[in-house]
Specification:
Pfam families: Aminotran_1_2. This protein is an alpha/beta fold and 398 residues long. The chain has helices spanning 12-20, 45-53, 68-81, 99-110, 128-135, 160-165, 184-197, 221-227, 242-245, 260-273, 279-289, 293-313, 337-348, 381-397; strands spanning 32-33, 93-96, 118-123, 139-144, 166-172, 200-204, 236-241, 254-258, 327-328, 350-351, 353-354, 373-376. It binds pyridoxal-5'-phosphate.
């Protein structure tokens, strides 16, 4: 087998299961998991109806490019959402089976193994960036995201010598696990760096539609391109998904969009990889991208939850003010995220993800995820609030 497989880290949830394996939680309390980022709100029903209405099309092979109607729907959605002058649905858009596989596949297609192949990733981070890099023969460059830099990578700290070896920079905005949002100006600065040092920007924007202030949606990479008059989106690729926006993680539907010079070879790769989206899923996706009402209602539900949970936790925990995504990223009182996670499970039957499992030791040897927790506020309001109250009890008890 490919020896690079041995370089892959166990997934954070495997490590968490091992940490909890010998622990006995109180049976009198129901278990409340705040661990996996799987939305529990109702899936968008019109998308499910479209799936059923088109089920007979399971009898046909889909094309890698997807249906023109889906690509046009996506191009219209993205143009409107990110104030683009336009997006060519033939050349600049491609449906994918969720952002996870697309991120993984894009790195395989994009990385040139014949020269140094560093891939910059935010630290802590969504683990696929790292796994994709290792399996493509590249080397992850971890850029720490701490309170000091607003939980966003500090690109000015990367030396010109290092930049020379970087082929791809991953941005995750809104961020998992921190919820941090990259401002438009920072996207523009990164584009200037990409031109200077000749790298690709891969912007994972799968949480872009979950934001708390209805008046300020998070900006995106293509929006920054458009603001710069860069309508060919050179060196830029964005990754979007229906999983969080429309509560359809099982549909496996998203899209990539951006530079046609990157998308054309990526399509060639995907033709061989064999990952076209089935036709009923494409019709369901069209229904979802065409509707904003359900997305608005989804945001309302998260807003209500964030407000209730932060009211309970703010007196006892320190966390960045949530702006977007469905995660809270509090500092652990006492500083030991592993110990706290285990005590919370044993005493309160609540599961959270220790921040250190999502990070790696950075430049100074310190893991910027340690001493924080990732709380995924994905369940309905009542259990989420109950979990927050149990967390507070544990802290108040000391
Ligand atoms: C940052 C980030 N990117 C990508 C994904 C993958 O999402 P999907 O493949 O469902 O679009 C996730 C899922 O949790 C995520 O947190």
């Amino acid at each position: 087998m490919n020896p690079d497989l041995d370089a892959l880290h166990p997934y954070p949830f495997e490590k968490l299961a091992a940490l909890k394996a010998d622990l006995t939680p109180p049976s009198a309390l129901t278990h409340i998991p705040l661990t996996i980022g799987e939305p529990q709100h109702a899936p968008y029903s019109a998308a499910l109806a479209a799936l059923v209405a088109h089920q007979a099309e399971m009898g046909r092979y889909p094309a890698t490019n997807g249906l023109p109607a889906l690509r046009e729907t996506i191009a219209n959605w993205a143009s409107q959402r990110f104030a683009l002058a336009g997006l060519d649905s033939e050349r600049q858009v491609l449906p994918v089976n969720g952002t996870r596989e697309a991120i993984f596949a894009f790195v395989q297609a994009a990385l040139d193994r014949a020269r140094p192949a560093k891939v910059a990733v935010p630290n802590p981070f969504y683990q696929i960036y790292e796994g994709a890099t290792l399996l493509a023969g590249g080397e992850p460059l971890y850029l720490d995201c701490t309170a000091d830099n607003g939980f966003r990578p500090d690109f000015s700290a990367v030396s010109p010598d290092t930049w020379r070896e970087v082929q791809i920079v991953f941005i995750c905005s809104p961020g998992n696990p921190t919820g941090a949002v990259t401002p438009l100006e920072e996207f523009k600065q990164l584009i200037a760096l990409a031109d200077e040092h000749d790298f690709i920007i891969a912007s994972d924007e799968c949480y872009s539609e979950l934001y708390l202030d209805e008046a300020t949606p998070p900006p995106g990479l293509l929006q920054a391109c458009a603001a710069l008059g860069r309508h060919d989106y050179r060196r830029c690729m964005v990754f979007h998904s229906l999983s969080k926006r429309s509560n359809l993680p099982g549909l496996r539907s998203g899209f990539v969009a951006g530079d046609a010079d990157l998308l054309t070879p990526f399509k060639r790769y995907r033709t061989y990889h064999g990952c076209a989206m089935s036709l009923p899923l494409q019709h369901a996706s069209i229904a979802a991208w065409q509707d904003e009402g359900h997305v608005h209602a989804n945001r309302e539900a998260y807003r209500e939850k964030f407000s209730a949970v932060t009211d309970v936790l703010a007196p006892v925990m320190d966390f960045p003010t949530p702006e977007a995504s469905f995660y809270l990223w509090p500092a652990v009182p006492g500083g030991d995220d592993i110990d706290f996670t285990q005590r919370l499970f044993v005493e309160q039957h609540v599961s959270v993800l220790p921040g250190s499992l999502m990070g790696r030791p950075g430049r100074d040897g310190h893991n910027p995820g340690s001493s924080r927790l990732r709380l995924a506020l994905v369940a309905e309001l009542a259990p989420t609030l109950e979990a927050a109250e149990r967390l507070r009890q544990l802290i108040e008890r000391g």
